Amino acid sequence: MPAAALAPTAVAHPPRGAAPAGTALTVARASAEQAWNSRQLAAPITVPRLRVWTYPAPGVVFGCAQAALHGEAARAARTDCELVQRRAGGGAVLTGPWMLSSSVVLPPDHRLLAGGTVASYRWLGVLHAGLLRDLGIPAHALAPDQLRARPADPALAWACFGGLSPWEVIADGRKLVGLAQLRGRHGVLLTTGTLLWRPDWALLCRALDRPETDVTRLDAATTSCAELLGARIHIETLAEGLRQMLADVLGDFAAGAAA
User: Do the beta carbons of residue 102 and residue 241 sit within 8 Å?
Assistant: First the structure.
């Protein structure tokens, strides 16, 4: 892409609804994204499938081991944002207009899955880091040996962006892109979430009844494209770049599989 297309620009919040915003980006609530992910793994996967997402409104997506947290948050009704349970593991994720996500669905014998669960993340983290560096963001994917040298904050174990896993992307020492994975008999789902600008961490902490100090901890543990660039990035430019790079790497990706 030309340099002008990559220049950071202001971007308005996506419109409400689930209609695609251009060819690369789907605007949908977190529940619609999770439903799409589940449908893909309901039948045998023969070719890779791909979707790039953003969200018209905030939502909290709980990991598969957080059913009790999800139920408690729903009963307490501390927020009116959407509360969703996902099948993949990990901590709670705060989705919203500040996040660009992707879903990649691969056949179980796909070449990119060779080497096991952790190795399956490597290409995806490296791809995201490369795309962000092209935009002027000093990002890199965190290798397992680098991760071992970084102490985790146990107080943030409940939040996806409060901790780091192998091959997730950091910049300025803080988390920028989160990764998750779900393996089924029909295929494997790999998902990502990139912080475009600072999320409403206070909303997430209220929903889960976490102390105000966790907002400060999440701010310290994370960064965003806008913070690193000094301006908001054009979301459709980033979405198009991400979709194109993913399609190039997948190789056998079929255009019809994006529907």
Answer: no
